[in-house]
Design goal:
Blueprint lengths: L7 E3 L4 H10 L4 E4 L5 H6 L7 E4 L9 E3 L5 E4 L4 H6 L1 H6 L1 H8 L4 H6 L2 H5 L12 H7 L27 H7 L3 E6 L2 E6 L19 E7 L6 E8 L10 E9 L5 E9 L6 E2 L15 H17 L10 H20 L9
Parallel strand pairs: 1-3, 2-3
Antiparallel strand pairs: 4-5, 5-8, 6-7, 6-8, 9-10, 10-11, 11-12
Length: 340
């Protein structure tokens, strides 16, 4: 039986109170949101904090709203089920709703939060194991050791970002609201990440994600999220890709964006890959030709490593397949599309 390490649970009712408790803990506390990821990590002794600061009672962290300028605000403690099933999100930010709907299974989506998924720790098949397993193998540089078991002699941890909602949010130009000891700040989500699997965020563990903000989408916006996994539910992504297509009044693609996940320590925007789509018309031959080009370019940029379960060569072979499928899924609402 895997048992929890001893810790104290603190229950703040406001963001300010939560920050006071975190700062008073002097680095010995962790945030507790839905608990779907931190609980197994505690049992595996990947984390051993003296206190958990439970955010369930902080009302400011919950809820979905749209302001007068059309910006969407998601409180960090809003559940993934709420995001996936929200009618306005499905209509105006469809890739986000779809990505949230594909996280794990329904029971865990009912508990798991959008903030928890954005701030999800990186994962690796050599790290996310029991303490007994890791001790027997020899610890890795992410926890208790100095060696990388993925890249022999590697100097940087390559544990993979596995948060399904992050690539969708990045294609949608999301911004995040952060609370710290210095007050509140807002920054583009794309600036959050760094290429270090030990800690892939530029924020400290003591800073708190308060909310996610999304600008309004274009009138003819289309989006989708494609997820490769072993089973139809529960599993983390072996590869994930989000697609954004914005059409002009003539039905041509005016703006496109793609972002992948489960490759390396940070979500991976496929820069310039989507350029080939601009000016094409979904359902027409120019779009089909562009999809082939984009899929080939994505396969060149996306190079899975043996850092998560699943054969990395198979995962690489699936990159162009899932890129095409997700592009067709996003474009389907714009008119007839010839599928593979």
């Amino acid at each position: 039986m895997l048992r929890m390490p001893p810790f104290t649970v603190l229950n703040p009712s406001t963001v300010d109170e939560a920050m006071e408790q975190m700062l008073a803990a002097a680095g010995e506390a962790r945030w507790l949101a839905g608990g779907t990821d931190i609980n197994p990590n505690l049992k595996h002794r990947l984390l051993e904090p003296q206190a958990l600061i439970a955010l369930e009672g902080v009302g400011e962290l919950r809820g979905v709203s749209v302001n007068e300028k059309g910006w969407l605000r998601l409180g960090a403690m809003t559940t993934l089920t709420e995001v996936a099933e929200h009618a306005q999100i499905q209509a105006q930010w469809p890739a986000l709703a779809q990505a949230a709907s594909l996280v794990s299974g329904p029971q865990l989506r009912n508990m798991g939060t959008i903030g928890g998924n954005v701030m999800l720790d990186t994962r690796c098949q050599w790290y996310n194991q029991t303490h007994f397993w890791r001790k027997s193998l020899g610890y890795c540089m992410k926890k208790d050791g100095t060696e990388c078991h993925v890249i022999k002699g590697g100097s940087k941890c390559v544990a993979a970002a596995s948060n399904d909602t992050a690539p969708a949010l990045m294609t949608l130009d999301a911004e995040i609201e952060i609370a710290s000891g210095d007050g509140r700040a807002r920054m583009p989500l794309a600036e959050l990440w760094q290429a270090d699997g030990i800690w892939n965020r530029k924020l400290s563990p003591q800073e708190l994600l308060v909310a996610i903000h999304l600008p309004p989408t274009a009138a003819k916006h289309h989006g989708a999220y494609g997820k490769l996994r072993d089973r139809g539910s529960i599993d983390f992504p072996l590869f994930g890709i989000a697609v954004r297509l914005d059409l002009d009044d003539a039905g041509k693609i005016a703006h496109a964006a793609l972002c992948a996940v489960a490759l390396q320590a940070r979500p991976w925007p496929l820069k310039k890959v989507a350029d080939a789509l601009c000016g094409t018309t979904p359902g027409e031959q120019d779009f089909l030709d562009a999809v082939e080009q984009v899929a080939a370019l994505a396969a060149k940029q996306c190079r899975p490593m043996p850092n998560i379960p699943g054969d990395h060569e198979y995962r690489h072979a699936m990159v162009p397949v899932y890129t095409k499928r997700t592009l067709f899924a996003a474009a389907a609402k714009a008119g007839p599309v010839h599928h593979l």
